[in-house]
Amino acid sequence: MRLILQQLRREAEGIVSYEFVAADGGLLPPFTAGAHIDLQLPGGLVRSYSLANAPSERHRYVVAVDHASDSRGGSAWMHTVPRPGHVFDASAPINDFALYEDAPLSIFIAGGIGITPFVAMVARLQALGRSWQLHYTARSRQRAAYAQALNALAHENGTVDLRCTADGMARPDIAAIVREAPAGAHLYCCGPGGMLDAFTAACAGLPPQRVHLERFAASQEAATEGGYEVQLARSGRTLQVEPGRTLLDTLLDAGVQIQYACSQGICGTCCTPVIEGRPDHRDDYLTDEEKSANRAMMVCCSGSLSARLVLDL
């Protein structure tokens, strides 16, 4: 898609939202709550951003970007360069964090910029008349994006528990939230790694179909041990992955055409079928069952536990 940036809005300290419209002036492809779009940025960067507006809106897409201190180029560029009228190439909406709309109760646990997908989810649940709870942690009220809008909705079908750590407030007791969740409730978490790890541990005994999480940073380092060869089944080429290099580095250096975006094993763009060998899975996209099956891998961050890996490339 080609999108035009229509306006920027300061949502909180260090957080700016970007409203896009279709370059041709028409309606945008529909999306469901929890979806994201991939924006193509200069230098070959591709960044995924959750859609924060109501799914009923076809005239615009809204994303929010935190000016991260450890930015790898994406957020720093977004906060300094684009202005209204800037043209972006983008993917159609993709949803790897879908809302289960029939749940009797949806419980959201958000940290920082992880609030973004839940803004769209709450809007959808409000439209459906479904119940929800939001547990939201931010450094301060000045850093709590969308807090005022979400609080305005809470008197109808939902509740908001905002914890600001700079004010001396304790973070939400994730284990207690999960333990006290009524039967049938679906639980969602998006935030920093420590929050997601605590959520995963607390939900270990729940049916996996009721547990949903989305990461915006990798939970483990990419595999750079090297010392194995990768055979490309379609071309018959064999490449050596040297120590200190990722599998994706090796493929790109050899001119292999492969799609990738986050480079952290989160988005699933670089998912590649495995024909032979035992991958060293380092991603947060595949399920444990999919990893055990060894039929696919994320080549951006995963490596090989076997001396030879054969990929469908």
From TrEMBL:
Domain FAD-binding FR-type: 1-100
Family matches, as Gene3D superfamilies: 3.10.20.30, Nucleotide-binding domain of ferredoxin-NADP reductase (FNR) module (3.40.50.80), Translation factors (2.40.30.10)
Keyword Iron: yes
Keywords, ordered alphabetically: 2Fe-2S, Flavoprotein, Iron, Iron-sulfur, Metal-binding, Oxidoreductase
GO molecular function, one term: oxidoreductase activity
Residue intervals of the 2Fe-2S ferredoxin-type domain: 228-313
Protein origin, superkingdom: Bacteria
Pfam families: Fer2 (PF00111), NAD_binding_1 (PF00175)
InterPro entries for this protein: 2Fe-2S_ferredoxin-like_sf, 2Fe-2S_ferredoxin-type, 2Fe2S_fd_BS, Beta-grasp_dom_sf, FAD-bd_FR_type, FNR_nucleotide-bd, MRET, OxRdtase_FAD/NAD-bd
Name the UniProt record assigns to this protein: PDR/VanB family oxidoreductase
Taxonomic classification: Bacteria, Pseudomonadati, Pseudomonadota, Betaproteobacteria, Burkholderiales
